[in-house]
Structures are given as C-alpha cells and as structure tokens.
C-alpha cells in the first residue's frame, strides 16, 4: 500500500525551491536504481535531511536517523550502515544539474511504509548507548492524523519554525511530517538561539505575510522572557513545547508576555500521546485514538499506531472523563540512607520557594551517595544570594525543605547558575549536571 505525502513548501527563495525539487528527483531516481537496504541520514542540514528522507520513502528504502551529529557517533553508525546520505551526496555532486526524471514534476510523492530507526534521548541500553527504536512511516502518519484531529490550533496562513532538530522524534514529527501533511510552509533551518527565533518570526510575518507556529522546548522558552524586541514572539500563532517538564514558573513568565504554550506529552517509543495548556487546566487531553491505563508501576499506552501496547514509567491519575494528571517518572524514586524520596516531589517543593525559578536535583556518588541541587534563581533569589554567603543560602533552602522531607533527603551540594545545562533536544542529561558540579562549567 502507498500513501500520499505533500512535497514540503520551504520558506526560501523560489529559485532554491526549484533547485531542491530537482535534487529530490535526482536522488529518488538514484536510490530507486541502486536499492540499498537502508540509508543513514547523517546530514544536519535541514534541506538535505528531508531530501534524503523523501527520496528513501519513495524508493522504499528504510532510513536510520542518528541520535546526534557528533563525529564519533556518525563514524560508529557509518561502520554498521553501508549507505550514508552524506557519502552519496558527495559522490553525486550537484543534484540539481542532473537530467530530469519522472519525479521532477510531481506535486505529491507516493511513499512506502518504510522503517525509520530513531534513538531515544534518555533511555540507554546495557552499555550506556542510546536505544535504537524502530517506527513505521505509516504509523507515524496515523499519529499525525490524530494530531491534526486533536490539537486546538488554527493552521490557516500559518508557517512552522523550530528550535528542535530533525533527529529528535518530536522535531521529526512536528517540523516535518505534521507540517507536510497539513501543507504548512516550513522554515527549514534549525533555530538554536532566541535571537534567531525572533529574527525568523519577524521575517515570516513581514515578508511572507504568514503567522509562525513555534515548535520548541522548555529550555528554549525559558530564555525568551529575558529578551528585548519580543513583538514577533507575541504575534506567534501558537507555541508547541515538549522534551522536558514545563514548569508552572515557566508558564507564568511566558504568560506575562502573552505566550501560552501548548505542551505535548509522549516519548520516542510512543510518539505524541496527549496535550494541555497548563494555565487553563493541569489535566492532559489524550489524542484521538489513544487509550491509557494507569497501573501501579507504569502507564500503559495503546493506539492503532502503537502495537503492541507500551508501558511508560510515569505516574498518571486518570479522571472519569478520560483526561489525566501526570505526576512524574516512577524511576525518579531513589533510596538514600534507607529512606525513599521522589526527586520530582523534591523539585516541585523547591519550585514553590520564592528564590527558585528552575531546579534539577540528582543523586551523585561521592564517599557516600548524596543529593545535589542545581538552581536557577529568581530575581529575588539573585538579590539574596548576592547579599549572603553560600553556606547561609544553602542552609536556608535546606531548612525550607526540612519542613517537607526528612533531613537526610535534602540536597547536600548546591550550585546556583544562570541556566540549566540542557542539550540540543531540550533534555537535561545527568552527565551535564555531573560535569557542572565537578567543574562549575556547563558542557
């Protein structure tokens, strides 16, 4: 069976769009004739990435998406995947100069139900490598249909901009498949800095006459309220965020500048599961077709595009109408000094303190296991920290926590920084926190 997927509408010069289409036709023709078993999408450039994906999907070639584009990671994958998109593009030279093929004038491309191998952002295998997850293209397209049916977003005259890379399933789905299926124009370049987000939004509003939808993460959103020249942000059609917890502090600071993000809950294994706008309601709304079952040690998720059902290590509380509260990950309950503590609960209590804007608490190995807290202070917190010694500040926060937790369960090590060391996916890897604690420097 084949499905139709729209050719992307790139927000670039018309000449470059025509060049991209010629390149797509040439690469599709090449892959159809050579039929490799799989194709490694080892290019970070957004235009080349989707060039390889579309060509492979039409040529019925499975694709492998790397967890990142670090040289060591790519070298390792190239040893196991015999066909590298970067190598093919290098060998073929300028694709847009090639002879016109049957794919040249197509407005829609029939794609096969290829396998797409992605890598999780947090879960690892027994040797510490990110786990490879295989998804089928048709399952992802069914998920996209559920998104289009469920999300309360108006798409007329909208365009997509994103801070999320293509190799993250969230980015792959929302800045890619969702946009393609909805026929939305796309800004093809990965926006890493808040200034780039503002500039891209300004350009799209002023020159294209479209209203941007921003696909991003809490890590990027946390930096927006501190910027000047926020008029383009206030004109966004909508903001989607996923990848890590979006705190109430984040939501309130963004609401002050007129931004009310729509949060997406899910995982690499399941794809998107539910959405909410937390200042409207703390409850998550499952996507159309999603079935959830709360169990003592997991949340069971099933849908037509999730087979078999998948267990997620999250505490959920389902209400009678089917929406649910998310209480954090089950696997963040740790044992310290013969006592158990939920790190989610500890962080949530700290977030209620007037000095704390963001916080990450983790278990670290010293002579004895101990908890460490990395804190981004509020404006009030910065004033207090500047006027007192570190030991006094740490003790005041410990005394505050002792009202809620046993003394042995409060952090022994504290560090105050300007922003948490998130990675490009908006995640907060333990190795980044450990490096910060060891050296005082973000990775």
From TrEMBL:
Q: Would you indicate the residue range of the signal peptide? A: none
Q: Which parts of the sequence belong to the AMP-dependent synthetase/ligase domain?
A: 111-276
Gene3D superfamilies per record: 3.30.300.30, N-terminal domain of ligase-like (3.40.50.12780)
Q: Tell me what this protein is called.
A: AMP-dependent synthetase/ligase domain-containing protein
- AMP-binding enzyme C-terminal domain residues are 346-427
Stored InterPro entries:
AMP-bd_C, AMP-bd_C_sf, AMP-dep_synth/lig_dom, ANL_N_sf, ATP-dep_AMP-bd_enzyme
Q: Which domain of life is it from?
A: Bacteria
Gene Ontology MF term list: ligase activity, forming carbon-sulfur bonds
PANTHER family the UniProt entry points to: LONG-CHAIN-FATTY-ACID--COA LIGASE (PTHR43767), SURFACTIN SYNTHASE SUBUNIT 1 (PTHR43767:SF10)
List the residue ranges forming a coiled coil, or say none. none
């Amino acid at each position: 069976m084949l499905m139709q997927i729209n050719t992307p509408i790139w927000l670039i010069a018309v000449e470059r769009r025509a060049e991209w289409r010629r390149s797509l036709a040439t690469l599709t023709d090449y892959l159809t004739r050579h039929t490799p078993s799989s194709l490694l999408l080892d290019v970070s450039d957004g235009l080349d990435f989707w060039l390889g994906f579309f060509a492979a999907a039409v040529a019925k070639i499975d694709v492998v998406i790397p967890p990142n584009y670090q040289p060591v990671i790519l070298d390792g994958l190239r040893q196991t995947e015999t066909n590298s998109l970067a190598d093919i593009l290098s060998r073929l030279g300028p694709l847009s100069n090639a002879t016109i093929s049957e794919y040249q004038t197509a407005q829609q491309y029939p794609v096969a139900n290829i396998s797409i191998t992605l890598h999780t952002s947090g879960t690892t295998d027994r040797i510490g490598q990110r786990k490879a997850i295989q998804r089928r293209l048709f399952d992802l397209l069914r998920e996209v249909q559920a998104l289009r049916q469920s999300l309360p977003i108006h798409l007329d005259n909208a365009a997509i901009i994103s801070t999320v890379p293509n190799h993250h399933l969230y980015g792959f789905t929302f800045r890619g498949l969702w946009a393609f299926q909805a026929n939305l124009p796309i800004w093809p370049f990965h926006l890493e800095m808040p200034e780039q987000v503002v500039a891209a939004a300004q350009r799209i509003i002023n020159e294209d006459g479209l209203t941007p939808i921003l696909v991003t993460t809490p890590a990027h959103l946390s930096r927006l309220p501190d910027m000047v020249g926020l008029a383009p942000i206030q004109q966004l059609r909508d903001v989607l965020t996923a990848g890590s917890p979006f705190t109430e502090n984040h939501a309130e600071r963004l609401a002050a500048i007129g931004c009310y993000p729509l949060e997406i809950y899910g995982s690499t294994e399941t794809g998107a599961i539910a959405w909410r706008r937390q200042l409207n309601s703390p409850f998550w709304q499952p996507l159309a077709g999603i079935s959830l079952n709360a169990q003592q040690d997991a949340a069971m998720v099933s849908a037509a595009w999730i087979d078999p059902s998948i267990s997620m290590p999250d505490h959920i509380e389902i209400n009678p109408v089917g929406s649910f509260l998310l209480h954090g990950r089950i696997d963040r309950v740790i044992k310290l000094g013969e006592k158990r503590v939920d790190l989610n609960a500890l962080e949530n209590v700290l977030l209620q303190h007037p000095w704390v804007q963001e916080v990450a608490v983790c278990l670290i190995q010293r002579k004895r296991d101990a908890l460490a807290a990395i804190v981004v202070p509020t404006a009030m917190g910065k004033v207090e920290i500047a006027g007192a010694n570190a030991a006094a500040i740490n003790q005041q926060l410990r005394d505050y926590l002792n009202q809620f937790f046993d003394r042995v369960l409060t952090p022994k090590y504290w560090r105050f920084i300007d922003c948490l060391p998130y990675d490009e996916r908006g995640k907060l890897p333990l190795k980044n926190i450990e490096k910060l604690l060891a050296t005082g420097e973000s990775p």
